[in-house]
Amino acid sequence: MLLGLSSGSAGAEDLRVRYVLRESIESRLREYGGTNFERGATLNRMFVDAGCGEHLSEQRVRFSKPPNVICVLPGTSGRVIIVGAHFDRVPESAGVADNWSGAALLPSLYESLSFEPRRHTYVFIGFTDEETGLVGSRFYARNMTPEQVAATDAMINMDTLGLAPTEVWTSRSDERLILALVSAAKYMKLPLNGLNFERVGSTDSESFKARKIPRITIHSLTQKSENDQILHTSKDKLSAMNLDYYHDTYRLMALYLVYLDYLLGEPETAGARSP
């Protein structure tokens, strides 16, 4: 499916998204099983299946840890947008919502954007060992050269999706990126809430804040999910997910990433004008 909409910028082309079939989205979500090493290997294979074999790599972080899995969609400019999600889980949990839900969307988002040239280079990263202290994202961010940092316009982080409608962690997100997401959600008539969850700890976006890269974290945590004790327990399983919410989040994220391709090429004074 192709969706076209005006970027709101004079002379700009229409924004276009090719949505992956819902059956494929849900099939990738169901491949959550295995150890963290096996989950990383599954993510690697799913990127290949999505067409990313030529620009797919692994970044070794520690000898005893799975590597970061990195898929690059080259752009026509020197600007970069990073899209990340951790694929590891805690031992007590199947880790479906936290965070196979985010990692499994990365190949689908690559597929949604890759059918035509983009201005930005998109770097899709499955981060290792977020649960043990943001190990993978810290390693990646710390090893970025000053030139790579300067070229990066945004880091989009997805962590724990599909428990509720799409939410944004406002205290761990930059205002311009929030306003752009609000604009995309309004266009699609999809719900979007701002909810901070400081008590659950940190998330991979903060590794990039340390390098002064604009970042945003998308999630679905609510008071209900906390009361139900889903996070980091045996209750984090497929039956805890709402697949309608999950699919809506995927659709919103695909459009959002294309919108950012145009918006972040404009002066900041332009703001996040409606798509």
Written description of the protein model:
- Helix content is 36%, strand content 17%.
- It is built from 10 helices and 10 strands.
- It has helices at 22-29, 36-49, 96-103, 105-113, 135-142, 146-151, 175-188, 205-209, 223-227, 243-263, and strands at 2-5, 15-18, 56-59, 68-73, 80-86, 121-127, 152-158, 167-168, 193-194, 215-219.
- The strands form 2 sheets. An 8-stranded mixed β-sheet has the order 3-4-6-5-7-10-8-9, with helices on both faces.
- Strand 8, helix 7 (175-188) and strand 9 form a beta-alpha-beta unit.
- Helix 2 packs parallel to helix 4 (105-113), helix 4 (105-113) packs across helix 10 (243-263) and helix 7 crosses helix 10.
- The relative contact order is 0.19.
List low-pLDDT spans.
1-13
Number of helices: 10
In the residues, how many domains can be counted? 1
| Rg over CA atoms | 17 Å
CATH homologous superfamily classification: Zn peptidases
Output the strand order for the largest sheet: 3-4-6-5-7-10-8-9
Distance between the termini: 18 Å
CATH-defined architecture: 3-Layer(aba) Sandwich
Overall pLDDT, averaged?
A: 91
Kindly provide the name of the CATH class.
Answer: Alpha Beta
Cα shape: globular
